[in-house]
Model the fold of this input.
Amino acid sequence: MALTSVTNVIRTKLDVRNFSQKDVSWEDKVSILDAGRMAGSGMNSQHWRFILLDKREDLQKLADLSITGKWVSGANFAVVVLTDSRYAWHLLDAGRAITNMMLEAWSRGIVSCICTGYNEEALRNWLKIPPNLAIAGFIGFGYPVKRIIGRKNRLPLEQIAYYGRFGEPLRK
Ligand SMILES: Cc1cc2nc3c(=O)[nH]c(=O)nc-3n(C[C@H](O)[C@H](O)[C@H](O)COP(=O)(O)O)c2cc1C
Done:
């Protein structure tokens, strides 16, 4: 069977934390946000909200407030993803929207990485995030500095997928 482009994107995509200075077009930014909007959510609740940041000083401030995402200071833009934590599955929904955005970006030659470590309180105050919304994380996007040559480091399928019962080998 021929590999679809979706298969190709899923299998090649890596999280990248180094970005070139090249600008991402406004159209690409909007398409990436729109890919997030297209994600399914529990009960089609669509409670996620996205904040786009692309001013240099905003990206620097985001980096300053982050613990494990200092690299975002070099990104071309970032998207902060908010969810309504009243929904038990809100972080699953966030994950689906984030994945859509990252895969859409990759298919356009734009790399990205997610960050989940930051000073939540400071981020909330700075971005005027309402108290009913949780911060699921932010994603930094941009063009890569150089061609990405990397391999995914993943456990073998047999180690994580079973057949019929937990622990049973995946065999036809
Ligand atoms: C839920 C989640 C949280 C993550 N948080 C961070 C983070 O705070 N900072 C960071 O640099 N990378 C973060 N990452 C990126 C992971 O380190 C990365 O997905 C993993 O190493 C696999 O990278 P690869 O797809 O390039 O192989 C996070 C990834 C996930 C899925």
